[in-house]
Design a protein that fits this description.
Blueprint (H helix, E strand, L loop, with lengths): L11 E10 L2 E11 L4 E5 L6 H8 L7 E6 L2 E2 L4 H7 E4 L11 H11 L4 H14 L15 H13 L5 E5 L7 H12 L6 E6 L2 H7 L2 E6 L2 E6 L1 H6 L6 E5 L5 H10 L4 E3 L2 E5 L5 H8 L8 E5 L3 H9 L6
Parallel strand pairs: 3-8, 3-9, 6-7, 7-8
Antiparallel strand pairs: 1-2, 1-4, 4-5, 9-10, 11-13, 11-14, 12-13
């Protein structure tokens, strides 16, 4: 709250924003408010409308209908002002492969109108933050995928933006590199407003202050990760590890527990009361042995299935 008790102006405000391509509504009238310093995630499968939304907010696409503002600047009427306060790390790694890390950063700083002495200083600062100081004078094409992603994000940071858009920042990275990128993104939160698009559920859960689930161009739910999980909370989920599970055994189990579904290495059963002995009685006639059982906490996977009726990877 400010001195007069009014709520602070959001860093990003979106009202009924839409984008139509031919007969297809890529974004279908969404509403959002994102607070200053917040890490906000747009979560959804490929083709859900995440990237289209980001491109409109970055003034790279004109909306078909609706409005949006970034740091008080209207994306339709004042796009230059918007571009002066944002940094963008696109889904594709946007680095010049034949330039060094330092040259990439100084080039981007120059494109933002930063004078050369200041550009050199900012490049040094960003190299330090991204952990690339020792590789500052190496060409980007010699970097690993994770290092190129860090440099790409650094190029979005070099202008010291008030709002940073990260579009699928860990796509294509191995699990170890992805975790390292998460740690890096966490260091950026607080002073900078971050909008993160991802279809990795665990990524949104680990990083976001709030999440909006977008499906077929529409926002179907929003809230903190815990708030979203509470929507499907209250029903325990038992995980049964049974590597030699057969289709016949699953069908027999589903006669007793209709919510049983196959997962890697076994099944999950969502029910208020689940008997391990009863599960064993269902599976034993088919030669299936239970290796272990345990209870699983509600995850964003459960939220997504509940909201959209499908797995995010489908």
């Amino acid at each position: 709250m400010n001195a007069r008790g009014a709520a602070p102006t959001p860093a990003i405000r979106v009202e009924h924003l839409s984008k139509r391509f031919g007969d297809h509504d890529a974004v279908a009238g969404i509403d959002l408010e994102i607070a200053g310093g917040e890490l906000f995630s747009l979560l959804g499968p490929n083709g859900a409308g995440k990237t289209t939304t980001i491109r409109m907010l970055c003034c790279l696409l004109r909306p078909t209908a609706g409005s949006a503002s970034v740091m008080g600047h209207d994306i339709a009427t004042d796009p230059i002002a918007v571009k002066q306060v944002i940094g963008v790390s696109p889904q594709e790694t946007a680095v010049a492969p034949n330039l060094t890390a330092r040259e990439n950063l100084e080039l981007m700083a120059g494109l933002h109108g930063i004078a050369r002495p200041r550009a050199r200083l900012r490049a040094d600062e960003v190299l330090e933050v991204t952990g690339l100081t020792e590789r500052a004078n190496d060409k980007a094409k010699t970097f690993s995928g994770g290092m190129q992603r860090r440099l790409s994000i650094g190029m979005a940071l070099v202008s010291d933006p008030q709002v940073l858009f990260l579009d699928e920042p860990t796509i294509g990275l191995d699990p170890q590199s992805r975790r390292g990128m998460w740690e890096y993104i966490r260091t950026l939160t607080g002073s900078t407003t971050i909008v993160l698009t991802t279809h990795y559920l665990e990524e949104a859960d680990a990083l976001a202050d709030r999440i909006a689930v977008i499906d077929a161009g529409a926002i179907v739910a929003s809230g903190t990760p815990d708030e979203l999980k509470q929507r499907v909370g209250g029903v325990p989920v038992m995980v049964v590890e049974a590597p030699n599970l057969t289709d016949e055994a699953v069908r027999a189990l589903q006669l007793v527990y209709p919510t049983a579904r196959v997962v890697d290495g076994g099944v999950e059963i969502e029910a208020d009361e689940v008997s391990v002995y009863e599960i064993g009685d269902c599976l034993r006639p088919f030669g299936v042995e239970i290796r272990s059982t345990g209870m699983r906490q509600v995850s964003l996977d459960d939220v997504f299935v509940e909201l959209t009726g499908t797995d995010i990877r489908e």
